[in-house]
Write a structure and sequence with these properties.
Layout (H helix, E strand, L loop, with lengths): L1 H45 L6 H23 L5 H17 L6 H27 L4 H8 L2
Length: 144
């Protein structure tokens, strides 16, 4: 019985380390892919007539992905807000890309989606402030 528990503990430890390595590998792949996409975008901007607003928004999206990866590496968790920020910028970029082809309904739906996502971010922030999951995080925010 004693040895079975030790064996289970050892297997569990190895599986946890394997999962951590898989996460790090995935983050590395995401980082490399983002760097490659950003380099490609910069190369395309340098070889074109100029820089458009959609190019800048796309670069902002890449930076948000980097911020997500960095936050995950620092804290070991990913706040839900980062993907929501990316979604808002993506919708705005889509509106700009399709500027001449947007119908009134598409504009209204896109603007409504951005407002709903922004309200979601506000609700999440309020919930984190009002009902913190960690007292250390709450003390750090109170001192700001």
């Amino acid at each position: 019985m004693k040895y079975e528990h030790a064996l289970q503990k050892a297997i569990k430890g190895r599986l946890e380390r394997a999962m951590e390595m898989a996460e790090l590998f995935g983050l590395f792949i995401i980082g490399i892919g983002t760097v490659a996409a950003m380099v490609h975008l910069i190369w395309r901007m340098m070889n074109s007539d100029g820089v458009s607003l959609t190019d800048l928004l796309l670069m902002f999206l890449y930076l948000e992905v980097f911020a997500m990866v960095g936050q995950y590496l620092k804290a070991g968790q990913l706040p839900v807000r980062f993907p929501l920020y990316i979604a808002m910028v993506s919708i705005a970029r889509d509106l700009i890309l399709r500027a001449g082809m947007n119908t009134e309904l598409h504009l209204l739906a896109s603007a409504g989606a951005i407002v709903l996502i922004a309200l979601g971010v506000l609700m999440i922030r309020y919930g984190q402030y009002k009902y913190p999951s960690d007292t250390v995080e709450q003390k750090a925010e109170d001192t700001k």
